[in-house]
Amino acid sequence: MIDPGGPAGLGQEKSGPGEPEVSWLRPSPLLLRARRIEVAGVTVPAAIIGGLAGQVASAAVGIAIAAAMVIAGLLAERFLARRVASWEYAERNDDLMVRRGVLIRRLSVIPYGRMQFIDVTAGPLERALGLATLRMHTAAAASDARIPGLESGAAAALRDQLAALGEAQAAGL
Amino acid sequence: MTGPGPAGSPASGPLPDRPLPAASALVREASWHRLHPLSPLVRAGRQMMSLLVVLIGIAVLNQHQDGNLVADLVVIVAALVGGFVSWLVTRWQIADGVLRIDTGLLRRESRRFPLSQVQAVDVVQTGLARLLGLAELQLRIAGGDSARGGRLACLKLADAEQLRKQLLALAAVPAGGLAPPATRPAYDAEAVLGPAGQPAARTLFRVRASRILVAILLTRSGATGLVVAVATWLTAQFTGSAGVVAPFLPVAFGVAARLFRQFNGEYGTTVALAQDGIRLRSGLVQTTAETIRPGRIQAVRLVEPLIWRPLGWCRLEVDVAGARQRSEDRTEGQRLRALIPVGTRAEADLLLAELLASPPLPSQRPPSRVRWKAPLSYHFLSWSGDGRYVVAARGRACRQTTWVPLEKVQSIRWVQGPLQRWLGLATVHLDVAGKRVGVKIEDRDSAEALEILRALPDLARAARSRAS
Fold this sequence. Notes:
By secondary structure, chain A is of the alpha+beta class. Chain A contains four helices and six strands, in the order ααββββαββα. In chain A, 45% of the residues lie in helices and 23% in strands. In chain A, strand 5 (131-138) and strand 6 (145-151) form a beta hairpin. In chain B, the strands form four sheets. In chain B, strands 6-5-4-10-9-8-7 form a seven-stranded antiparallel beta sheet, with helices on both faces.
């Protein structure tokens, strides 16, 4: 049986797993703006095209379709806002913890020594806002640790820091 | 094993000179070698055979039209010349613990394989290669399926065996900065060294051919094959004409080929424990001899399908990082290597004890409210763990028990779906390198899952530092 290491203090069960003494960091608030722009970029054209197409039948149908699109977009925005808010990461002494998810909650623990390589990517929208996504890869295909919406300077700094820690603690397969 | 500082002359090179017999003069350090001249023929193997059959058929049918025959000959000659050129431009060497393979005429390619990262070495012989006394040597290196490992096709069988030994000996030498393979009690040199100091392989398991036959018929593909065969026969019986079954034939042929591949792959599986790792031999027509280096096993899985259970049979598989090559299709590439294709629990337990030092058995049951979430798989769900291994059992129709050494754990994930949250449950995944096999500690009480999540990283770190 695995005995729980350290003093028992498993609070915060409501807000997800983790240890209270760990300081959790969040992605930049700009990430929410990026997601909102993405949603708007889909919703507005969809509403316009749907509305115009509905106009062929009658004006009421067109307005109803456009309204439905807008409502769907707003719902998606609410959901994404919660998802963005749930994204957190914490650097511990020997590993990185990333937790995320609203419906399905996930918490990944990746030991620094297990990192094979680190990706920093930024799409056009992310670049415009000065954001980047950091992704850590281990030898296991299933491990997933992704931190989106880091300010690009912070992402590069975190990447270098993780790479240095990974090198210091590297372990063979 | 001879240590890194043997009594040999210091002039014999920077690497420990295991007393390799004279045959190994062939693989002297840093000199270039070619593959066997007949290797293009073997590599083209299967395609060549079918091509030849087709061509002969065409030639026989068109006996009076000489033009076609000439065209066919041109195709064959072109293929042979291509093969010869590829042989001519391919060469390999071993230097500084790195295997280097250069190939390509127009697009030169030079690939280097650090031997310290080798996970396993396979010697594969296709049917044609066996006729010619050749063998293919494959290195399995960790890292993605696309970055395929090294492959030397083909060498003379004796040379391939010799080279395998030499590669493994070189691989066991830790290169700078790389973690040496974990040593486990099961691989103690004293335990496997013969009286003369010669490495002696200790046979642990040998599969029975009759049992494989029955076992394959009792799997899904085997059952499909039976159904197809019976359907074909019945149709022929009722209609009274053999021509009616013609549409069945392609399907029947495909199923039969698949069954034969499985049978061929598992026939005569022999597991032996040697000093340089676990030796695995199998095959009827195409034979494979694998050597898995000690401490390179990422996971061990015991599979007990529903139909086999009354017979007391099971299957024991191991997962090694690095994809196997020459797999016929994707699903086969994803399949794990079976140490025991089919065997009794007693045989599996014996082998398990050799692979893992006193492995824990899954004993801790999940809370009974898991019945609401997983009414079927609740029956076998359980897990257990100690400072070295974590084990978990799952599956109802096909019970799977997976062991993972803690020092192999790459990352740990805690996952909770909506239904699990409502029931106060959570799942903890342990990921290892390899083929998406890992331990899934499924549906534990939230508090217990958190406890596991808290404790495991530290235990895994301790196990890692013990191993290195």
